[in-house]
Amino acid sequence: MRFNELRRSVTGISQKVLTSNLREMEDTGLVHREVFAEVPPRVEYSLTPLGQSMRPILDAMGEWGEHYQQQVAKEIA
User: Fold this and answer.
1) Alpha-carbon distances of 73 from 17, 30, 65, 67, 68, rounded to whole Å
2) Given this structure, which CATH class describes domain 3-76?
3) Nearest-5° angle of CA 25, CA 31, CA 35?
4) Cα separation, 23 vs 28, whole angstroms
5) What is the pLDDT of residues 14-28, one digit of tens each?
6) Residue 36 pairs with which residues in a beta bridge?
7) HEC profile for the chain?
8) Where along the chain do its domains lie?
9) What span, in angstroms and rounded, lies between the C-alpha atoms of 24 and 30?
10) Who's near 35: CB < 8 A, 6+ residues apart?
11) Predicted TM-score (pTM) above 0.85
């Protein structure tokens, strides 16, 4: 996935924060960064096998967040 695609898919994140997080995830082996020798240069990011192994955990956290959000909305109403 290209940088701008990632940025559009994560609402509310600044370019600086996304860049910093991608670098950190690359350094820890969660994300692979591939630079293509093209003009203009093209860079794509993908999950490494280690990053892929986190999918079930992240999916569960997303489901929990959706459930929690619905519960809070019920409490406020």
Assistant:
1) 29, 34, 12, 10, 9
2) mainly alpha
3) 115
4) 9
5) 999 999 999 999 999
6) 42
7) CEHHHHHHHCCCCCHHHHHHHHHHHHHCCCEEEEEECCCCCEEEEEECHHHHCCHHHHHHHHHHHHHHHHHHHHHHC
8) 3-76
9) 9
10) 41, 42, 43
11) no
Nearest by Cα to 46 from 65, 26, 72, 63: 26
Structure tokens at 37: 């020798």
For residue 67, what are its two tokens?
Answer: 């459930």
Please name the amino acid found at residue 5. E
Q: pLDDT digits over 25-74, tens only?
A: 999 999 999 999 999 989 999 999 999 999 999 999 989 988 888 887 88
| Residue written as token pair 């994140």 | 13
Burial of 31 (0-12, 13-18, 19+ CB in 10 A): buried
**Structure-block tokens of residue 43:** 């860079």
